[in-house]
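Let us walk through a complete example step by step. Step one is to write down the protein sequence. Step two is to encode the small molecule, flavin-adenine dinucleotide, as a SMILES string so that its atoms and bonds are unambiguous. Step three, shown after the inputs, is the structure prediction itself.
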Amino acid sequence: MSDNQLFKPEERIELQRVLSKMNREQLLWLGGYISAAIDFAPAVHASYANPVIEPKVLTHLEEESSGGVSSPQSLTILFGSHSGNSEKIAQIARKEAQRLGLEAKVRNMEDYNPRSLKDEEQLLVIVSTHGEGEPPLAAQELYEKLKSGRGFSAENIRYLVIALGDSTYKHFCKTGHDFFEFLKKLGASPLRDVVELDTDFNTRLSGLIPEVVGQFATVNAAQSAQSSRPAAAKDVEVDIQDGPVEVEIIEKIQLNGRGADKETWHIELVAEHPALKYQPGDAIEVFTENDPSLVAAVLDTVGLDGRELVDIDGARMSLKEALQYHSELTVLTAPVVKKYSTFLQNETFNRLLEDPEQLSAFLAGTDVLDLLQKYPAELKAVDLVSTLRRLAPRAYSIASSPEEVGNEIHITVGAVRYEKEGRRRNGVCSTFLADRVDVGQRLKVKIRSNNQFRLPEDGNTSVIMVGAGTGIAPYRGFLQQRAALGHKGRNWLIFGDRHFTTDFLYQTEWLKYRNSGLLTRLDVAFSRDQEQKIYVQHKMKQNAGELYKWISEGGRFYVCGDMKTMAVDVRNTFLSILQAEGGMSPEQSLEYFNKLRKERRYQEDVY
Ligand SMILES: Cc1cc2nc3c(=O)[nH]c(=O)nc-3n(C[C@H](O)[C@H](O)[C@H](O)COP(=O)(O)OP(=O)(O)OC[C@H]3O[C@@H](n4cnc5c(N)ncnc54)[C@H](O)[C@@H]3O)c2cc1C
Ligand SMILES: Cc1cc2nc3c(=O)[nH]c(=O)nc-3n(C[C@H](O)[C@H](O)[C@H](O)COP(=O)(O)O)c2cc1C
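Step three: the predicted structure of the complex.
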């Protein structure tokens, strides 16, 4: 079919007019865009069999393109990751880029020199957000450098940012947005707005990656790649290979003593599966399901009986099944309430959405049932499931070492239960584990590796481990590992919880390790056993001289548990110890602290 047959004369003239006005960047962008569009619209494919770009335009492209028509365009895929998701997506994007004829390389932000920016042509940034809206540690240095902007140029770069995040956090995908702005300020040209990925990103990748990477494919590269493409982009198989694996529960013990006001479970899982290989410091993700009584209350509130059919990832199922196994009911996020508002047309509700402070106050401790009850809307089954977020697995730090327990995985789970507005609420995963599964039953899990929380390779290095509540979990794995491998380095555990009599988690094991000499020091802080609250940071302060000595002799410092208060207090106390014991100014202590973080001598696993 010729272009004469495909386009009316006035359309051809209009196309030529538009194309002839475009500069090289615009044409390159359009080439990638069309390439992706072809894959998503098979009927349009034929209409591009004869390219509409006139020879005159192609000549203009050849002249300006430094590599000539046949040389592949380069694409640097730069990832910044803490728990590996961004890195996995970077590898998937690399495969897709190569399929499209791009010369793609994957680079870790941790080792990336921003001076290389001047040599980049195309950049795909894939980065997650951690802490409370902070870059992952591995991305921090690059983040600071690009933020300052001094001495770097990104003027020749076309770029795109994929931001990973979790919409339950206030600063959703913030780091990705920040990188987007930094690069823009440095003169780079964005190909589109930031692509935000929530915890259900796996379900979006097979469509998204070809679309995003396709935007980088140049007109020439796209043309040459088209003939050799093994499949249309929409058929691309995303090789994630990290689905969950089934494990059996072989032990489940309540760790708190009688009369405790907390509920912490020790759970042992077992399975022989290569995907379940782990190291101390890693976590597992547990795939969970909603409480049937909450599902029933939701159905009752929306006036649906649960037998309505809906589609989830191409699978047809009843609404009840979708709500129980696939929809997030216990936590509410900003994107969900924004989608929900389209069914409401309620001015008060819309005003709430526009005020970030009011919105985050509304979201805290509010669940889907609250939303449906407070702001009733007429919803069909399909409206409800498409509004709700996909149920995400929850992470639990592994509390064992494979050197000690073989193919078992132990975890320490604090049950989340609270009351609000006269209704008892239960955390979906922690109470699924506490209430609805037992020994002999099976769970679906996945290892979430964490290279940012590792024992030193040198077994002679001293370690100081600070943890509160379930933050004790990884240290059980650390000590099992050091005992099993006969490591001689000193071990100091600083543990905190509420009461000595009920909440001294794994007490007998620590005492055994102290008696054997494996645990060189054990300090405990039970906050509610006396009028004055005592926390782990107070124990650090009481032993400031010794702590500074361990650190200045090359020791490593670990913090695990609550992110919002404990980790902040521990960090501030650590800085004050550097100042008091090391004679450092506040600036010097911060500089020293950052150096320790970079050298992996101050590591955090906080949540
Ligand atoms: C890397 C990592 C490691 C982790 N390790 C562990 C671990 O070893 N052990 C462990 O127990 N947990 C651990 N967690 C936390 C765990 O993943 C879950 O977040 C936790 O179990 C709660 O999940 P849930 O599904 O039970 O609760 P959800 O259904 O997710 O509900 C939690 C939500 O309830 C609300 N909420 C809770 N308490 C209150 C309250 N008092 N008032 C109002 N609202 C409230 C909050 O909005 C909160 O977001 C870890 C998390 C990460 C990221
Ligand atoms: C402790 C912790 C803090 C987080 N903080 C945020 C946050 O502030 N904003 C956000 O959007 N996502 C946040 N996330 C979610 C991560 O960005 C998300 O899990 C992402 O997929 C991780 O990608 P990575 O494995 O490449 O690091 C946080 C996750 C954890 C474990």
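Step four is interpretation. The longest strand covers residues 245-254.
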